[in-house]
């Protein structure tokens, strides 16, 4: 990377000096702008951040009179946020949020609201948000804005629920319209397997107040007359779902952050119709490989890629088949922009391992519906010292040096994006990029003995051993799977005889000291050998 002007480090230079190579590799593949939330404890560290980021945001001098920040004032709303008439970039702050997309604005809003009078120990602002371009730049401004309570993971459903709870009251709190429409959604099923998936998900719908119900084809047609019901087996109706204007929503959270004392520093429509947004399979999708192998195009913020309707032609035809009115409608606008994906499809949220005071919230494939909930989750964790609920699947520590491999990152990004609308099986395994260099010393030997593997933070862990033809291969199902008999056999063997289990993927804790034996005896169910 090139150094910033006037001999100062560019933000990427600085990030490379402070963030592990693994994080940069994963994040470059999945994002087009930086985001991190950082709590600073040393003035010197803060000044280094400002030195780098101020130049990145177009401020030639820290003491320049150019208005590159919007600070708290009596003037709320979009205009005040977009280009506030005010403060210089501060030299110090308790918390710095880097990135002014939906997630960054949400974190700044929640942190500022949570304890505006307690976070800052000096006259410096408690929370400052830095954005290299404008609020909503990156992926937020061109997002579809879908809001749903649906997610295959129970923990992530809490995030969706908290997001919708925030969006429903945000306009009243800030005075900024958000464009939320809770019109409900209908997911359509054309195969028996999709109907099985809907039934399985419906069994978890009551975990949070998010009602849903199955519909037959006639009900689908009655509720949505535009649908061609031919070939439909049914649908899953979620009445609380809808859509929101990503731009207005982000501006409202920015207005809320300012209202509670945060500073926002930048470089200082809605219409009727139909929208179609297909997810192409991995062999058709376009991956920005050069962003991984080199760097994100400097200055990229609110740009789009060239249209490529030919690539999504089959999916437009499918849309016309299911919604014939779409075939008679003129195309008003096409949008081809970047979207972020981590290798497993879930973001990285939480403290950066090995870097005290640095927090991550990156790699969001569904930033609009995640923004409100993740902002609250991370802000409460930072404020209270512990996470408010279990969201282990987004732990940044799930990636280590084993993931610092371009071929792994690119193959997983393709697979994850391409399978976005695939069936969400229980105990799902995805093969791309495997085995990694962390597979384990016993991998080859176990494979020769008929082992079928599960993926655990880079390790290949045996989950069953093939002993019969019907046990060969990975064939997931919402009913009894092909590994059911194999797992039963192995469970009986371990229970009635003896077995060896490879625990290489488990963490190891070294406990020492005078009271270690008593402590472990208290913690564990079994007796600790003396």
Concise structural overview:
Helices cover 34% and strands 11% of the residues. It has 17 helices and 14 strands. The N and C termini lie far apart (56 Å).
Write the layout of secondary structure elements.
Layout: H1 11-18, H2 21-30, E1 36-39, H3 43-56, E2 69-70, H4 78-82, E3 95-98, H5 102-114, E4 127-130, E5 146-147, H6 154-174, E6 185-189, H7 192-202, E7 213-215, H8 217-223, E8 234-238, E9 242-243, H9 246-259, E10 263-265, H10 289-293, H11 313-322, H12 324-327, E11 348-351, E12 358-362, H13 367-384, H14 406-418, H15 443-448, E13 451-456, E14 459-465, H16 484-496, H17 516-523
Parallel strand pairs: 3-4, 4-10
Antiparallel strand pairs: 1-3, 1-12, 2-10, 5-9, 6-8, 7-8, 11-12, 13-14
Could you walk me through the main structural features you see in this protein, from its secondary elements to its overall organization?
The chain has 530 residues and is of the alpha+beta class. It has 17 helices and 14 strands. The protein has helices at residues 11-18, 21-30, 43-56, 78-82, 102-114, 154-174, 192-202, 217-223, 246-259, 289-293, 313-322, 324-327, 367-384, 406-418, 443-448, 484-496, 516-523; strands at 36-39, 69-70, 95-98, 127-130, 146-147, 185-189, 213-215, 234-238, 242-243, 263-265, 348-351, 358-362, 451-456, 459-465. The strands form four sheets. It has a seven-stranded mixed beta sheet. The longest helix has 21 residues, at 154-174. The chain is globular. Residues 1-68 and 71-87 have low confidence and may be disordered.
